[in-house]
Write a structure and sequence with these properties.
single chain; about 300 residues; alpha+beta; seven-stranded antiparallel sheet; three-stranded antiparallel sheet; 10 strands
């Protein structure tokens, strides 16, 4: 895939992007790939979406956002994008050098869609409060009941401590992202507030559109408040959501089970590691093997001969 990284070709420019992300919870890297490369990804995604619709597979959410899921299996161009060097440096800056691909989806903001304020690590329990009381246990976290709602009361967590970012979401702009066509909206600095957004309380929290030309990417700290914007045009706005998590966390998509045999046959060690085939620090392994494999099992019940 032909890439252009003129906007971040110097160490200073990359440092500026990281600094913006640290302060505001997001940054935009413009023209990270060529427009021709973005057009090729767009054509492949729409072709896939049409073919899936023909066999009755079409995932349209309640907010009028359409997903084409599990792009890992759906084209070499998508897999190439996972190793874009600038993107991976940004991801490592947010969650550390040891990280996994969590999910990879085509993201179509359809006309007439609604906003849905959230963060990408809604499942992270808040720290203890000033009295060192646990506000929510890990097993209490639920996508519907805790994401985007104030479950910890007005006091919330201790102001001196908030959870770290454990997720970095990269939104690739396959179309131009504008305020008119439903560009991702964010609240700058919200990643440091320590709580989830609420639709009723936070409608006027200072939302802005992350506008960027096709071929760019928007990096989102897992704690920053964001949403798909409202698409006021008559065409879908297309992006690719490439979600990464720290190595300790469960991935959104079960990539080890779902990746196709055809992709595995040509997978590099780097891709296998990114998917989750390499155990780390005692997690994800099968007995003492260095890397797990499809069809590989732990020993069964044995008796000495």
């Amino acid at each position: 895939m032909q890439t252009t990284t003129d906007t971040v070709s110097t160490a200073a420019a990359l440092a500026d992007a990281k600094a913006h992300l640290d302060e505001h919870g997001y940054c935009i890297v413009e023209n990270a790939i060529s427009r021709a490369a973005a057009d090729a990804l767009r054509a492949r995604l729409l072709e896939q979406a049409e073919a899936e619709a023909q066999i009755g597979i079409e995932r349209i959410l309640g907010d009028r956002k359409q997903l084409v899921s599990f792009l890992l299996n759906k084209g070499q161009g998508f897999r190439d994008l996972l190793f874009h060097p600038v993107m991976r440096r940004i991801v490592a800056h947010v969650v550390g050098p040891r990280h996994l691909l969590s999910s990879y989806n085509g993201h179509l903001a359809l006309p007439g869609g609604a906003t849905r304020f959230h963060t990408d690590q809604w499942w992270m329990p808040p720290p203890t409060n000033a009295a060192r009381q646990t506000l929510l246990r890990p097993g209490d976290m639920d996508r519907d009941d805790t994401r985007g709602h104030h479950r910890t009361g007005g006091e919330g967590m201790h102001p001196a401590a908030i959870s770290p970012a454990c997720v970095c979401n990269i939104m690739w702009t396959i179309d131009d992202f504008t305020a008119q066509n439903g560009a991702t909206i964010v609240v700058p600095g919200s990643h440091l507030c320590g709580r989830e957004p609420d639709h009723e309380l936070d409608e006027d929290a200072g939302w802005i559109a992350a506008e960027a030309p096709a071929g760019s990417f928007i990096a989102l700290d897992g704690r920053v408040w964001h949403s798909t914007g409202e698409n006021h045009t008559d065409q879908p706005r297309i992006g690719l959501t490439t979600n990464f998590c720290a190595w300790q966390f469960r991935q959104q998509e079960n990539l080890v089970m779902g990746v196709s045999d055809e992709v595995l046959a040509d997978a590099t060690p780097e891709l296998l590691d990114l998917i989750g085939f390499r155990p780390d620090s005692g997690y994800g392994g099968i007995e003492s093997r260095e890397r797990i494999a499809r069809g590989q099992y732990a020993l069964g019940e044995l008796k000495p001969s």
